[in-house]
Amino acid sequence: MGKSPKLPDKKIEKVRDSNRKLIKRHKDLNAAVQDLIKKEGKPKNEDERSRINRKAFKTIIRRNPLLLKAIKENVARARAK
Q1: CA distances from 35 to 6, 8, 70 (A)
Q2: In whole angstroms, what separates CA 54 from the centre of its chain?
């Protein structure tokens, strides 16, 4: 199977921001993300903080099939532009 072309960094950041906003708009999804972040404990530095945040968002996205579909649509829309 072929791979899709890589998106430029600016487009990737816009897609990630829109995905985060999508999650934060829903109280239950946002609460689940915050709970996962809190369970990881206090980060020692900025790199660890971003790793914990990425892991929490990824986990919530994988658990919710409707959210996963919406995020795939966001990426497809960014590729089409």
Answers
A1: 32, 32, 22
A2: 7
Domain boundaries, the chain: 9-80
Which residues fall within 8 angstroms of residue 69, CB to CB, at 6 or more apart? none
Q: What predicted TM-score, i.e. pTM, was given to this entire model?
A: 0.80
b/e map 59-76, b = 16+ CB within 10 Å:
ebbeebeebeeebeeebe
- 43: closest CA among 33, 53, 32? 53
pLDDT tens column, 60-71? 999 999 999 999
| Spatial separation of the C-alpha atoms in residues 79 and 81, rounded to whole Å | 6
